[in-house]
Amino acid sequence: MSRSGSVDAFDIVILGGGPAGCATALTLARLGISRVLIVEAGQYESVRIGESVPPDIRLLLEELGVWDDFLKEDHEPCLGSCSSWGDDALGYNDFLFNPLGNGWHLDRKRFDAFLARQAAARGSVLCTGTRCENGQSAEEDGFLLRLRGGGGQVRSVTTRFVVDATGMRSCFARTMGARRLFVDQLLCVTGFLDLPSTASFSKLTMLEAVEYGWWYAAKLPNNRLAVAIASDPEIIKQRGLRTQEGWLGHLAQTNHISPALAGCRLVEDSQITCAAPSFVLDKTAGSDWLAVGDAASAYDPISSQGIYKALSDGTRAGEAIAAYLRGSDIKLSEYQTSLEARFKSYLENRNFFYGMEQRWPESLFWTRRRARAAPMRVQELAHS
Questions:
Q1: Mean pLDDT for the stretch of residues 152-168
Q2: Is residue 366 scored above 60 in pLDDT?
Q3: Which residues lie below 8 Å from residue 116, measured CB to CB, with a gap of 6+?
Q4: 33, 66, 158, 161: which one has the fewest Cβ atoms less than 10 Å from its Cβ?
Q5: How is domain 185-275 classified at the CATH fold level?
Q6: Helices 330-355 + 306-325 axis angle, to 10
């Protein structure tokens, strides 16, 4: 990067160095697009939520050219899932006969850093601890961006194209006039538990519906478990689920997950509260920019598609940008149409899944989700 006061020029600036942004960078490198800058606000040191990926992730990682290196990262295999959903008993859905093998429980912090290293190794410039303060149209084409590093140093860059991979904030897309069309405003409180070396935990993801929401548990690398409760913000507040005492008290009352955690201890001060909304932008691409991953659309974590969607979106985005820079905007239009179609399909699957749970007809959490079970088009979401 240049010293303060000078201006660097890039073909692409990607705002956000998570899975979606890095997948975009990897795809651009595969297609011969150079001068790519990834601007990441963090340093890949903080805990990141969202751990499980299905066996199909192999196809995307192979396409991105990182599958063999991913295997060397030694993440925890996931053999499927078991759930108490619509019934008090556990039902099982394993990957035994999946031709692509098992899925994975990821150490997200390590996985995101891995993708960033892979993108940098293929030619992208990775700038961590840096945020985009503002952007404006350049004198000719593209944008002039003002970047601020962690030490307060300010730099300016020009770019032909901006990728918004800033996650659910959709920072750049919203400055371009895009609106987030919300379907749901779920909240998750996640805690991390240490698994004693003498204890064991299933390699299946566990899911348990309760009257006020649903619990999730999965084994991570290094003998650690991620356990989360998902519910509405006001229910989380009313039940004290953001406090350690309230969270542990409600967890202890679960029928299946609590017994499976026997001997485990909550890591002190490890609880994280994260928004997990369902939304899509009313405009995911424009003149010289597009949004990708959770910046473009966010799915309920019940879908277990977050990371897969991020990598898939990044691959499609990279292909669309490469075509755009070579003189065709058809791929950008197709990108937006495809993203909206996939969001509609996601809504149908989500509504079906929530509609399966009928055990608590008076529950505010479940009646809200049954009320949203009617099919919706993207254009209707602004009024829902």
A1: 95
A2: yes
A3: 17, 22, 38, 40, 44, 126, 128
A4: 158
A5: D-Amino Acid Oxidase; Chain A, domain 2 (3.30.9)
A6: 170
